[in-house]
Amino acid sequence: MVYYPLSALMLAGIKQFLIISTPEFLPQFEELFGDGHNLGLDIQYKVQAEPNGLAEAFILGADFIGGDSVALVLGDNVFYGAGLSKLLQDAASQDKGATVFGYQVTDPERFGVVEFDEHQHAVSIVEKPKHPRSNYAVTGLYFYDNSVVDIAKNIKPSPRGELEITDVNEEYLRRGQLDVQVMGRGYAWLDTGTHDSLLAASSFVATIEKQQNLKVACLEEIAYRMGYIDLQQLEKLAQPLKKNDYGQYLLRLVKEESK
After folding, report:
1. For residue 56, is it within any domain?
2. 10-residue block means of pLDDT along the chain (259 residues)?
3. Does a structural domain hold residue 26?
4. What is the pTM of this model?
């Protein structure tokens, strides 16, 4: 599952990652990715000992972030669409303020919901409202300038005891520095936080891959196409996998690119 959100950040041009997870699961991610050098990445790891909210990521990762801008993606989110890479690279290139993405859903009460005025400017963001003012959910992909670290340190826990990412976004909105980009027709965002949505995401990815004969969120391919690794390294990554469909896909890519 982690390949999907990681691929989104790679498509944004990001090469340095901090994976934050529980003490139980973090060692599994370390075993899977190591330090990331095989993919041309720099991957580090941090434990979140308690479920204290998404915004705690910026506190836990303060040393990793340093003086840079930062992006956050949730581990159960899938993004797909033509032009996605440019959309994300544009967001990542902003050095002031925050950029988040709105996506129309049928069950907005499950998410942070953004309300727009008649000019499509965001006027409010409410976390999991009982009576949503729009059907636009804020996706689990966020781009922030360096101010986010101090903002996260100064917000108060919500009634459920968590540092809410919505409170971070509300602070940027209050400052007039929140850009909400709408992912409209042609984009797919799948939040796999329920059994039904996980099944829907699996069916969607399977259909795309079968119809187009392409892989979705293939990190090795993305690393190659983004210039993080060369063709020789791509083939090296493919060889141990050559007995399965995934490895065969990579070897076919190597052959096509060698022409």
Report:
1. yes
2. 95 98 97 97 97 97 98 96 95 96 93 91 91 95 98 95 95 96 93 90 95 96 98 97 96 94
3. yes
4. 0.94
Tell me if 203 is assigned to some domain.
no
> What pLDDT is stored for residue 156 in this prediction?
96
Based on its alpha-carbon atoms, the radius of gyration of the chain, rounded to whole angstroms, reads 19
Extract the tokens encoding 9.
């950040």
Q: Give the domain range for residue 28.
A: 3-191
Q: 79: which strand partners?
A: 189
Which stretches of the chain are DSSP H helices? Answer: 3-11, 26-33, 56-60, 62-65, 84-92, 147-154, 165-174, 195-212, 219-225, 231-238, 245-257
Tell me the CA distances in angstroms from 171 to 84, 124, 154, 165, 245, one per residue in order: 27, 11, 10, 10, 46
Residue identified by tokens 């434990």 is 47
CA-CA distance, 2 to 21, in Å (whole number)?
11
Q: Which of 41, 39, 49, 33 is nearest to 15 (CA)?
A: 41
Q: What is the largest CA-CA distance in the chain?
A: 59
Q: Count structural domains, the chain.
A: 1
CA-CA-CA-CA dihedral for 137, 53, 198, 126, to nearest 10: -20
Output the six-digit token pair for 43: 């991957």
CATH of the domain at 16: 3.90.550.10
Backbone angles phi, psi at 141, to 5 degrees: -135, 120
Instruction: Say if 183 falls within a structural domain.
Output: yes
Q: In angstroms, rounded to a whole number, what is the distance separating the alpha carbons of residues 28 and 44?
A: 13
Residues 6 or more apart from 259 whose CB is under 8 A from it?
none
**How confident is the model at residue 171, as a pLDDT?**
97
- Give 8's Cβ-side CA count (13 Å radius): 28
The answer to whether 214 and 225 are in contact (CB under 8 A) is no
- List phi, psi (to 5°) of 155: -80, 155
